[in-house]
Amino acid sequence: MENKYRILSTIKSPKDLKKLSDSETKELCEEIREKLIEVVSVNGGHLASNLGIVELTVALHKSFNCPKDSIVWDVGHQSYVHKMLTGRYDKIDTIRKKDGLAGFPKRSESEYDDFNAGHSSTSISAAYGIARAKQLKGDNSYTVAIIGDGSMTGGLAYEGLNNAGRFKKNFIVILNDNKMSISNNVGAIAMNLSHMRLKPTYLRVKRHTERILSHIPLVGNFFKKVLRRSKSKLKNLIYKNTLFDFLGYTYLGPIDGHDLDELSNALLVAKKNNTPVLVHVVTKKGKGYEPAETRPKEFHGIGKFDVDTGEPLSSKKGFSYIFGKQLCDMAKRDKKICAITAAMTLGTGLSEFSRNYKPRFFDVGIAEEHAVTFASGLASKGIIPFFAVYSTFLQRSFDQLIHDAAIQKLHIVLCVDRAGIVGDDGETHQGIFDVSMLNTIPDTTIFSPCYFDELRQSMNAAAYMCDSLVAVRYPRGGELYRPDNFEKSSINFDLFGEEKTKISIVTYGRLFSYACKAKEKLESEGISVNIIKLCRIKPIDCKAVKLASDCEMIFFFEESLVAGGIGESFGYELKKTGKSFFYKIHGIKDTFVRHETVEEALNELKLDDEGMIKVIKEYL
Questions:
Q1: What's 493-619's CATH class?
Q2: Cα 408 to Cα 339, 405, 426, 467, distances in angstroms
Q3: Is the pLDDT of residue 194 over 50?
Q4: pTM
């Protein structure tokens, strides 16, 4: 069978790229796109961002000498192409699978991955640290930071830009401008970049003028020197100066991010500068695959899909969708309800809200810290803000949660999406830290529903039964197993089974579904079990503690870190009862959770029904 990836399959390292002719390089780009579509359609992952950065990645690896030169990716979800070109093509089919390639840069995976990434706006700061370290060692190799225009809405990017503006040599920032992050970009920076994209005149005029002058005998070189001395005046005339110029960078661009010749020329110029350089590259998200070009939001992070149609293979409605519908219903009844997202309108289920309640919808860009403080400002004047955010990104706003919200007892609602194990996105995205983080903040209420109806009840309780910081956390995906005889009786907790049994399982969130299956299997073997299902996990209802204390053995299971988790809090309350019992907390120990499916991770952590049974039987 003929190898349809004729050139790509021969690329074992970036050195092989340098041997290719121009026509072969262009053919390679097409093969990369085809391979990306093939792999992501089966594995899921980040497609649109990778399709848009093919030529830029190829140009980078042809222009620089990695791994001696360093390339630092921001977020890193666009690094699939980089992985293919750095000796990992033969493993690309395993990306995001257990024991396969990670979906993000990973230092332990390859010497070509200079810095781990997964969250936004980190590349400039990290690259500046790498560049300074090289300087201290007498290493004059180049350091390149790649950052998207979406990531430029994060404050950390400007802290890095400001600090690195003093560095004099071999430091290059590539601004990959595709006009969006996950949702469309917002704010003044996006407007400024849009203005610059509409004025691609400067470099074109400069190139054409120099080309003409070079052919004029005797006076041509003199005028070229004059032109170079006056280039800043020409640039100011066209661009009115850029923020990057003020910060100390030589600004080059905008460059067509799909023109290999133009990219190569720009990178060559950048390498010759003795100041930090910012190369502004304009790309098209989803380039080369029509469904991704027309629907880039949907193809940012996507599950399995049909290559011919671009349609997802699963359309099951999950917690994010239910959250969005419920918030619309609440907003219809109450004009004080508003929604905030940090560039995640689609991912958090807020698309309908953004259309129907536009004046009350706020997309603040990739700026979770700002989102919390902004929400606190709204709350200080009587508004009820719902900030929808993935658990992993909420981590970035810990100081603001304490300083700007909790201390002032301001009533903001955190809607913590992707809580718990998220699966194949891996360590940087697992939602296993929010409980321990929020549990340390005084006067904070936390709800962790298991089913859609509980999510709706928790959102209502968060809006109207709480008066300070409150979080409603829910998992990725949809509802799991629900016993026919389970009936919800309280927003705080429910008892499922007999009051007094030998064994009590205490848990919250979706682990209740697994606990129910474990209960059924154990009882089929004659082992009596009840389940205390917490929905409000902070503060813990004292009645739930009293019920648990009547049992001989209590097993607390949580899909979160044990350290600082609810199991420790529940155990402390149990100890205060003075009763005698065996108590075991089983959760995630002092470790990070690697990339694999949710089911594989829960099984490995002994947090599914089989795992719960093993843990319980170990102590019987």
A1: alpha beta
A2: 21, 6, 35, 11
A3: no
A4: 0.89
